Amino acid sequence: MAFELNSVVPWGRTFTEYRQMFNLSAGDVTKKIVSIGDGPASFNAEMYAMGKRVTSIDPLYQFSADDIRKRIDETCVEVIGQMRANADKFVWNNIRDVEELQEIRMTAMNHFLQDFNYGCSQQRYINHAMPAKTPFADNAFELGLSSHFLLLYDNLGLKFHTEAIQEIMRICAELRIFPILNLNAATPAFFGELLDALGLNFNIDIQKVDYEFQKGGNQMLIIKRGI
Predict the structure, then answer these.
(1) 146, β-bridge pairs
(2) Interatomic CA distance for residues 211 and 170, integer angstroms
(3) pLDDT tens track for 121-154
(4) What is the DSSP string of 132-152?
(5) Reported pTM
(6) CATH code at 12-224
(7) Extents of the domains making up the chain
């Protein structure tokens, strides 16, 4: 199935949010990192500005910066309207209100867009759709991150998530997934079955993090090789 830009709702998060969502330590950010489903997040750009490198993979990166910017502009008003209508489902502590949220998200996405073409030339942004096999060698990365992609879209099903995680674990020693809720702020129906399957081959842990915006969304899933 072709990946169509008009089906995407771009929504970018920042380095600060990634650090909190994934409990990233000073040592973690020096590792070889692959970030899956990054979309228009500024994490990669901000890491590069600090002299660190991240490889981001997302099918969004097949499109030009101009096309992505146009899609951001098309969807931003609708997304902000939905946030206002569902404000009670979120925790307004670090982010005070919908207006501040919009400012943070647009700043992150503009930072991404400014970096995108140069990042593509450096192969920091890779066009790829999971769960297909990635173009990377076994054990190419020390740490994998999945922000608001795996588990969040539980409608993709158990098979998709199992195959995607298995492929990421082929190229990574460790994978961190945040949040472990779906779009309705509920535990995915297949979550227990997924953990049972992964537990046959990997070490599994659930860890509380210093970040909660979606109510109840303050935990990440950690998957490591080692069994």
Answers:
(1) 36, 177
(2) 28
(3) 999 999 999 999 999 999 999 999 999 999 999 9
(4) SPPSSPTT-BSEEEEESSTTT
(5) 0.95
(6) 3.40.50.150
(7) 12-224
